Amino acid sequence: MRTIRFLAFISFACNLFADENLRLPNIFGDKMVLQRDKPVTLWGWAKAGAKVSAEFAGQNKFTKTNDKGIWTLQLDKLKTSFNGRKLVITSGAEKITLTDILVGEVWVCGGQSNMEWSLRSSRDSDLEVASADSPHIRFIRLPHIARPTAQEDFPVTNKTSDQGNWRQAIPEQVENCTAVGYYFAQRISRRLKVPVGLIDVSWGGTMAQHWVLNETLKQFPEMQPYHEKFEAAMKAWVDGGEKEGAEKRYAADLKAWEKARAEAKAKGEREPRRPNQNNYTTPAHKRQPGGMMNGMILPISKMTIAGALFYQGENNSFGTSWKPFHRTFPAVITDWRRVFGDEDLPIGLVQIAGWSTRRSMTYDMNHHTNVIREIQHLTWARFKNTGLIVTYDTNSNGSIHPSHKRPVGERLARWALAQVYRAMPHKSNKPIEWRGPVYASHEIKEGKVYINFEGETARGLRLNKDIAEGFYIASQDKEFKHSRARIQGAQLVVWHEEIKEPVAVRYAWSNLPHGTLLNFRELPAYPFRTDNWPLAPHQSTGLYEVNKISK
């Protein structure tokens, strides 16, 4: 039985709803999906000491609020249901009725812009939006809320807003659904024959540390500069008169800009940029260490869910932002499991794609994105009940936002069906294959490097269209060259005519990877390297040394 969630023992700064009457958190709403096959937690607020009852699917459960007016209860395990039913919460004369509630699989979708990327903006939107016919797939996109302290709920502007309300995968509503989540839900719904609910907590431009508890972050020395920067911004905000002072500064700067613009226009010169009003708002509501954990995860952390999907890493690939990632990215897993009250919570991780351009071999070999992908891979290897899927092949250009989201969602679904649901292929007792070739070991013989892969991941090992792309090789001088490669049974053989004594091989190791190594399922091989040489990320300081962070 699930333990009482982490929120039950977090000390909140205040209880904003203690004096209110019967109320549910905004994650509960009409047309939502409740998790099947697990006890389902319900919670909310009412008058202190009041009796509260919940009725759903023939069950009637009772509890009382505590002295702060908070109540929590659990429904017994629910069976899958496509039949929309009512959830009725009662306290005295007060009653809340939610309608058209389904029971199926509930997944949280988190991360940054590539998870937030809507179906409307994806490559196949012209086909998918108009074709959407899955009213049993439901989704809710939470508003962007960041706060320095833990929040009990998130705001909803109105019942028709595309944020904070449950919607259906139908043409009139599906545009705003996370595209990765949509394709994931499509596949698992069809295979498992269940409704699916997606809780979208993604926010573009966020870093891993934004999704972690502050008490965890305080243990990481690499986070000190980020804490100091936020504290300085808050001090400047307070010292500057907070909202009133900011409004005065904005008005003065706007007036100065209007004057400067008129002068530039008269002279035929380039006009200055208008002041951005967002720069005159409180830092307490912007991206910050622990901010999205406080504002978007903790308010929903009592929810009973099947698992989570997390697609993030791009914003830890700039400047020195990679430095805390080896601590903060694993902390997303440990802290999400902690607050959701499930130490084995399945979490599907998405390895970042590439962007920008290839400038030189040195630039490629040392790019920040290689650091992030390797840390993501090492993190996957450390944690049970996690999966990592590859996306570098989804780019058709140098955009940081590959618009082809179907492979990402469907590869996540392969992982979930294989590892979480233990589903089998039709007329087969073998597990569903979800991993591309995973590097295991290598040996060097007669000037060539022979690469071995883990178990069945190399079944049907092949080079796409028999072309070897994405392979690099170096001798002891650490100068990499594009190499040749061929498949020899379940092994990959890599060499270069000019390198007689090879030492290291790398694959898909670039800021914009391109590789042709596949297996029988045409699942791409994971980027790998056989060396552990330090990397010197460009536009950064210090070295990334894998042997110091992988323990």
Index terms:
551 residues, eleven-stranded mixed beta sheet, four-stranded antiparallel beta sheet, 12 helices, disordered N terminus
Describe the protein in words.
- The chain is α/β, with parallel strands linked by helices.
- It contains twelve helices and 23 strands.
- The strands form five sheets. Strands 1, 3, 4, 6, 7, 8, 9, 10, 11, 12 and 13 form an eleven-stranded mixed sheet that branches. It has a four-stranded antiparallel sheet with strand order 14-15-20-19, with no helix packed on it.
- Helix 3 packs across helix 11 (406-420), helix 5 crosses helix 6 and helix 8 crosses helix 10 (368-382).
- The longest helix has 26 residues, at 242-267.
- It starts with 32 loop residues before the first strand and ends with a helix.
- Residues 1-19 have low confidence and may be disordered.
Low-confidence stretches: 1-19
| Count of DSSP H/I helices | 12
How much of the sequence is in beta strands? 15-25%
Termini separation comes to: 33 Å
The helix/strand class is alpha/beta
Tell how many strands the DSSP assignment holds.
23
**Can you give the mean pLDDT?**
94
How much helix is in the residues? 10-25%
Largest sheet: 11 strands, mixed
The Cα radius of gyration reads 26 Å
Shape summary = globular
